[in-house]
Amino acid sequence: MMRAIATFAYVGLIPVAPGTFGSLAAIPVAWGLHWLGGFPLVVAATLAVFWVGLVATRAVTAGAAEHDPGSIVIDEVAGQFIALWPLSAGLWFASVAPHVFPWPGWVGAFLLFRLFDIWKPWPVSWADGMHTPLGVMLDDVIAGLMAAVCVAIAAGISHGLMGT
């Protein structure tokens, strides 16, 4: 069970770019959560994924030589959910129909999250260097927060300054 959670229903076992596929798999799940319960459900699910992911990562890596195997992608799911917060929040607060999840927002959130997760600027690199289950989860949370800030700024420019 812990392996299924850590690999996000075995998406992490894809042999090429498992983190990218884990992030991609998180997007339709986040959309479904947004559709069902709006921004509050997306935030609650993010917190739940973080906690369950921490427990699963701890169980899967206990006694293993590698502290952050590529097959663990539940951390990417948490980070991708956070990167989508500005999109979900903006739509929810604007009372847009819950099935609407426009592509510029989720594509930008995906690309920015992957950029920060792969590039690992400080403080992402700091968390990644912890070499603990908390570090495994925390570096993606921070990358997700950095992506979310960029998505919010881009949305502000697009919808505020450019009036689209």
Automatic annotation (TrEMBL):
Transmembrane segments: 35-56, 77-97, 141-162
BP terms from Gene Ontology: phosphatidylglycerol biosynthetic process; phospholipid catabolic process
Stretches assigned to the YutG/PgpA domain: 5-154
InterPro entries: PgpA, PgpA-like_sf, YutG/PgpA
Record GO terms (molecular function): metal ion binding; phosphatidylglycerophosphatase activity
Cofactor: Mg(2+)
Lipid bilayer topology: Multi-pass membrane protein
Keyword Membrane found: yes
Subcellular location(s) per record: Cell inner membrane
GO CC terms of this entry: plasma membrane
EC number: 3.1.3.27
Keywords recorded for this protein, A-Z: Cell inner membrane, Cell membrane, Hydrolase, Lipid degradation, Lipid metabolism, Magnesium, Membrane, Metal-binding, Phospholipid degradation, Phospholipid metabolism, Transmembrane, Transmembrane helix
CDD domains associated with the record: PgpA
Reactions mediated catalytically: a 1,2-diacyl-sn-glycero-3-phospho-(1'-sn-glycero-3'-phosphate) + H2O = a 1,2-diacyl-sn-glycero-3-phospho-(1'-sn-glycerol) + phosphate
Recorded superkingdom: Bacteria
Pfam families recorded: PgpA
Pathway: Phospholipid metabolism; phosphatidylglycerol biosynthesis; phosphatidylglycerol from CDP-diacylglycerol: step 2/2
Function of the protein: Lipid phosphatase which dephosphorylates phosphatidylglycerophosphate (PGP) to phosphatidylglycerol (PG).
Protein name: Phosphatidylglycerophosphatase A
Protein species of origin: Algicella marina
